[in-house]
TrEMBL record, chain B:
InterPro entries: CcmE, CcmE-like_sf, NA-bd_OB-fold
Binding locations of heme: H123, Y127
Membrane topology, Extracellular segments: 29-146
Presence of keyword Protease: no
Gene (name only): ccmE
Protein name, entry field: Cytochrome c-type biogenesis protein CcmE
């Protein structure tokens, strides 16, 4: 594990991986979006509005998956103080927040014609909105802090915040099971899917596509932070040389 | 013990503590965080007459009737265990239908009817192509449910 915590070794993998993730993600997304929006039939009851699930479900998955990885990065930062953990957490926060916002927006757009309302304070929607604010808080906490100027490591406070926020993830997941909610129960569980196969397969494509795209964005943002670190280090060395 | 191991144990203990607190908090919220009450809860006397609340349930088959004024409907909301008659004046969402979920804002009237000011349609977790939805009831029921 220590081997990959080294930025140079990380870059040797991340550099060639980025275009593959980006290209593969965009390709899968295009095929998945075309299949989901044009090829498969609408839902028997909702008609065409059901098609928004091909964006809504991957967004929810990435919003929640994003915070899960952010919390793992926070733990690694706290315990092993790996230089890359803080960089990864910083890189994940913005796309994570973006996909959470996309999930809330598409859910709201779907809710109006389906339920008859843009927004209700039920368990699922409220906990997802809390996730959005958690991301906002993390970004506010880490942007321009001491760690951002010196290598990207998270402060202890930010790492603890990432861990504490993770409690919201199982709450979002279970909210429709624990509490009576307006949002329907889970369609896809370990036991199978209540989305018919004819409507399900484009979701696999967009889910993988968005995930690869998310990975590419995170790698690019991590590489940017590492590049910035190197520039800062070089400038400092130059300044030292001139003085000396 | 190395400092690293100490930090690992501390962090894991903290995570366990947070998870425990979260589960406790969530289970304490079990009733409070419910978005609506079910007909069975109302039958058990959990709703006072005139108290603003939400009622959720399935619209019983064959129960929707339109009153003479043309804008008021009556139907029966059920959860399989108990049922509550509901009265509503206004426009219902497109997906509001018999044998389908709904959530109503309103209050209980003294005669045991729930008077709704607003009705939302609740969607279930099943998605399928129209051909399958149009199938006779017995066949459509064979489609995976949960």
């Amino acid at each position: 594990m220590h081997a990959y915590a080294n930025p140079t070794r990380f870059l040797a993998i991340a550099r060639p991986l980025t275009p593959w993730l980006l290209g593969g993600g965009l390709l899968l997304l295009m095929v998945g979006a075309w299949a989901g929006l044009a090829l498969v039939p609408g839902d028997y009851k909702q008609g065409e509005t059901a098609r928004i699930l091909y964006v809504h479900v991957p967004s929810a998955w990435l919003g929640m998956g994003g915070w899960t990885s952010l919390a793992v990065a926070g733990l690694v930062q706290l315990v092993w103080r790996h230089p890359l953990a803080g960089i990864a957490a910083r890189a994940i926060a913005v796309p994570g927040m973006l996909f959470t916002a996309l999930c809330l927006a598409t859910g709201s757009i779907w809710g109006k014609p389906t339920w008859g309302t843009w927004w209700e304070w039920d368990g699922r929607m409220t906990s997802m909105l809390v996730l959005f604010f958690l991301y906002a808080g993390f970004i506010a906490l880490t942007r321009g802090d001491e760690g951002a100027r010196a290598g990207g490591a998270l402060s202890r406070g930010a790492a603890v915040y990432a861990l504490v926020g993770a409690i919201n993830i199982p709450i979002i997941n279970r909210s429709v099971v624990w509490w009576n909610s307006l949002h329907q129960g889970p369609s896809i569980t370990l036991r199978g899917s209540s989305i018919d196969g004819a409507l399900l397969w484009p979701l696999g494509l967009t889910l993988t596509g968005f995930s690869l795209l998310f990975g590419a964005i995170v790698l690019m943002r991590m590489r940017r932070i590492i590049a910035e670190n190197r520039v800062t280090a070089r400038l400092r060395r130059l300044a030292d040389d001139e003085e000396g | 013990m190395k400092a690293k191991h100490q930090r690992l144990i501390l962090a894991l203990l903290a995570v366990a503590g947070i998870a425990g607190a979260g589960v406790l908090g969530a289970s304490a919220l079990r009733d409070e965080a419910a978005y609506f009450r079910t007909p069975a809860e109302i039958a058990a006397g959990k709703a006072a007459t005139g108290e603003a609340m939400r009622l959720g349930g399935m619209v019983a088959q064959g129960s929707i009737e339109r009153l003479g004024d043309g804008v008021t409907i009556r139907f029966v909301a059920t959860d399989g265990k108990a049922s509550v008659p509901v009265e509503f004046t206004g426009i219902v969402p497109d997906l509001f239908a018999e044998e389908s979920g709904m959530v109503a804002d309103g209050r209980m009237r003294a005669d045991g009817t729930f008077v709704a000011d607003r009705i939302l349609a609740k969607h279930d977790e099943r998605y399928m192509p129209p051909q399958m939805g149009d199938m006779p009831k017995g066949v459509a029921k064979m489609a995976p449910k949960t």
